[in-house]
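Re: weekly structure request thread

Next one in the queue (193 aa):
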Amino acid sequence: MNKIDHFKQNRPVHLALRDTYYQRGTTLLQHLRGKPISHRKMADYEEVLFLLRTARDHGGFSVRTHSATDKNAQFGQFINLLAGNVKSILSMLNLKKSVEAEDGFFLSFLDINRASVALQAEEYERRANDIVCCMLGTLDLSEAAYKKLIKANWDDFSTVERKRYEKAKTHYTTLLENRIALPAYKKRTGQFS
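Done, posted below.
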């Protein structure tokens, strides 16, 4: 009896999930491109973070086989880098919110006036915007490499694997577009979460 390698068997499905969640997350980021940071919602970035983390996880499952390419592993690291940037944006926006809070510690602890608090809040907002601009530039640079990776994976698939990839991609794209059963992002708790 042959031993089944579940990671190899499910590789097309994991790649489809990786690609679907990555494409949805980066599409949401692109839609935020034209909005000023003050009009963007933290919930948007929380959703992007969830999507990128899910893409990263499925990317990790897809490279657990002997046939996995280095480019797929590198792409997983790239997704992780993007998720770290989104986490940094959320951190800056959380700091801005904390500084601006009427009943927050910042104003009372530092014993400063509202104008000073407003300047500090603007700095956090500016940092968040800088990270967004840098990340969108990085995404623009990655477009050709990503398309090349998708083509290489497609060429490597057998006919059965192509069907499984397409079926999974279509199914999860529909779920994400309709927001059916998409788990909510759960903020981690703790001092350094």
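The mean pLDDT is 84. The two ends are 46 Å apart (CA to CA).
Next request, please.
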